[in-house]
Design goal:
Blueprint (H helix, E strand, L loop, with lengths): L29 H21 L17 H18 L11 H25 L7 H28 L2 E7 L1 H10 L8 E7 L8 H7 L4 E4 L9 H7 L5 E4 H9 L9 H9 L4 H36 L5 E7 L5 E7 L23 H9 L6 H6 L4 E3 L6 H10 L12 E3 L1 H5 L6 H17 L2 H14 L6
Parallel strand pairs: 1-2, 1-3, 3-4, 7-8
Antiparallel strand pairs: 5-6
C-alpha cells in the first residue's frame, strides 16, 4: 500500500489534532442496554403517574390502585428483561426503522401485560388505564428514540479498524470480518513486506484509524517497538483474536493457540465455575422438572399414540473431559432413523415424526435432560454434547474442538442461540467458535444472558 510522503513526517505532537476516541457498537455491551432500558421504562412510568388526574389531585387514589414507586420499579425490571429476551440488547442493533419501532412497541406491550397481570392476580391491585396507555406510548418512544440516536451516532461516526500484517493475514481477516459494517466498523488493511520502513503511526493518523489489529503469529507482524509507538490516548492496538471476540462474541478457532487454552483452563477455579454454578443447576433443574412434569406426561402419551417405540430415547454423548454418558430425550424420530448409520440431524429432517417436530420446536424433548443435570452429567448452560462417532472425526479435522469439553455440556448454550443446526463439519466449526467464547467468558452474567435469550429461541427450535 502506497503511503503519502507528507503523512510520514507527522510527529507525536500531532496527535492532539485528532478527534476524540470513537466507539463501535461492540463497545456498548448488552448489560449497558439493560440499564438504559430500565431507566427509560422507569422514567416513562413515573412520568405517566405525574401527568394523570391522580397526581393533579383531580381524582382520589383508592387503596385498590398500585402506587407509583411499586409500579415504576416493577415495570422497569420487566421491560429490561423482555427487551433482553427479544434481542434488543445484542451488539448488532442496526435494524430497519419500522421493524425496530415494532419490536420496541411489542416489548412495551408484553411487559405491561405481564406487570398488570401480576399486580391484579397476585397483589389484587389495579393500574389505571390512562397510566397504562401513557406508559406504553412513552416507553415505546423512549426505547426507539434512544436506540435510533445512539446507534445512528455510532454508525455515522464510523469506527475505523486497520488490519496490519502480511498479505495472507489481511486477506484472511477481511474474509472473516465481512459483516463488520453491521457493527459500525469499517475495515481497512495495510500489507507489510519483509524489512518494511513504513511509519505505521503516521499512516494510522492519516487514514483516521481508531484501532490497529495484528496477529502475533504473523511472520511479518509489526515489532513490539512499533506497536508501543502506536499506542496513545486515542489509538488502540489489539490482537486479531481479542478483536473478533469483542466484535462478534465468538472465538476464531483457527487462530487460537495452546496458550489460549491454558489461560482459559486456569481461570476455571473461580467460586462460580467450581461450586455456585453446580448449586444453581441442581436447584433450577428440580424446580423446572416439577413444573414441566404435566407437559412431559402429555407428550409421552402423544408419542405413544403417534407410533411404536419407547417414549424416552437414550443416546451416548461425550461429556466433560471426554467422559461418555447416556443423554435422555423424549423420542422425536422414527425408530428406524439410523438404520443406515449415525448422521447429523438437519433443520427439516424427514426422520422427525409429527409429534417430534412439535417437541423439537418447543424444546420439550430436552426436558428429560434435567435428570442428566441433577446427577451431574450436564449443566443447564454449556456446549451441546456431541456424539462420540462425530466427536472423533471433528477432533481430527477441527483444531481445538476437544477443548469445548473443558466445561460440562448444557441443555442450552451460546452456540445454540447464535448459530443454526450443525448439519456438517463447517457448521460444527462455526458452533465451536461460539462454544470456545462461552468457555472463556463463563460467568453468572453469561449464563443468565443465555437463559433469557433461550426463551426467544423456543419458536424456531434452535438446537
Amino acid at each position: 500500500m502506497e503511503l503519502d510522503s507528507a503523512s510520514v513526517n507527522i510527529t507525536r505532537t500531532d496527535i492532539g489534532d485528532r478527534p476524540a476516541r470513537k466507539i463501535s457498537l461492540a463497545g456498548i455491551r448488552p448489560w449497558t442496554w439493560f440499564v438504559i432500558d430500565y431507566a427509560i421504562a422507569y422514567a416513562s412510568a413515573t412520568l405517566a403517574f405525574m401527568l394523570t388526574p391522580y397526581a393533579l389531585n383531580l381524582v382520589s387514589l383508592d387503596q385498590e390502585h398500585v402506587g407509583q414507586m411499586g409500579f415504576s420499579f416493577g415495570l422497569a425490571l420487566v421491560v429490561a428483561l423482555v427487551a433482553h429476551v427479544a434481542g434488543l440488547h445484542e451488539l448488532n442493533q442496526r435494524k430497519q426503522s419500522l421493524s425496530l419501532l415494532a419490536r420496541c412497541f411489542m416489548v412495551s406491550l408484553i411487559a405491561l401485560v405481564i406487570i398488570n397481570a401480576e399486580l391484579l392476580f397476585v397483589h389484587y391491585l389495579k393500574v389505571g388505564r390512562l397510566i397504562t396507555v401513557m406508559t406504553m406510548l412513552g416507553c415505546t418512544a423512549g426505547l426507539f428514540a434512544l436506540r435510533a440516536l445512539i446507534v445512528g451516532m455510532v454508525v455515522r461516526n464510523t469506527y475505523v479498524v486497520a488490519m496490519v500484517g502480511s498479505n495472507a493475514y489481511t486477506e484472511r481477516a477481511i474474509n472473516y470480518l465481512q459483516d463488520s459494517d453491521s457493527y459500525g466498523v469499517k475495515i481497512i488493511t495495510l500489507n507489510l513486506t519483509e524489512g518494511h520502513t513504513e511509519d505505521l503511526r503516521a499512516w494510522a493518523i492519516a487514514n483516521g484509524v481508531d484501532q490497529v489489529v495484528i496477529d502475533p503469529d504473523d511472520p511479518i507482524a509489526p515489532t513490539e517497538n512499533e506497536l508501543l509507538h502506536l499506542i496513545d490516548g486515542r489509538l488502540t492496538v489489539s490482537t486479531y483474536t481479542s478483536f473478533v471476540e469483542n466484535l462478534f462474541e465468538r472465538v476464531p478457532s483457527k487462530h487460537i493457540t495452546a496458550k489460549w487454552i491454558i489461560d482459559t483452563q486456569a481461570d476455571h477455579e473461580s467460586l462460580y465455575k467450581s461450586a455456585v454454578k453446580r448449586f444453581l443447576d441442581v436447584a433450577v433443574a428440580i424446580i423446572a422438572l416439577a413444573l414441566l412434569s404435566p407437559l412431559v406426561i402429555i407428550a409421552a402419551i402423544l408419542i405413544k399414540l403417534d407410533g411404536p417405540g419407547p417414549v424416552v430415547f437414550r443416546q451416548t454423548r461425550v461429556g466433560q473431559y471426554g467422559q461418555l454418558f447416556t443423554m435422555l430425550k423424549l423420542r422425536s424420530m422414527r425408530m428406524d432413523a439410523e438404520k443406515d448409520g449415525a448422521r447429523w440431524a438437519t433443520e427439516k429432517d424427514n426422520r422427525i415424526t409429527k409429534v417430534g417436530q412439535f417437541l423439537r420446536n418447543s424444546r420439550l424433548d430436552e426436558a428429560p435432560q434435567l435428570l442428566n443435570v441433577i446427577v451431574g452429567q450436564m449443566s443447564l448452560v454449556g456446549p451441546r454434547p456431541e456424539r462420540p462417532e462425530f466427536t472423533k472425526k471433528l477432533e481430527e479435522n477441527i483444531p481445538f474442538f476437544v477443548h469445548r469439553l473443558m466445561v460440562k455440556p448444557g441443555i442450552t448454550g451460546w452456540a445454540q442461540i447464535n448459530a443454526a443446526y450443525a448439519a456438517n463439519e463447517a457448521d460444527s466449526e462455526t458452533k465451536l467458535s461460539y462454544d470456545l467464547y462461552y468457555v472463556k467468558m463463563l460467568s453468572f452474567g453469561m449464563d443468565l444472558r443465555i437463559m433469557l435469550r433461550t426463551i426467544s429461541s423456543f419458536a424456531d427450535g434452535a438446537r
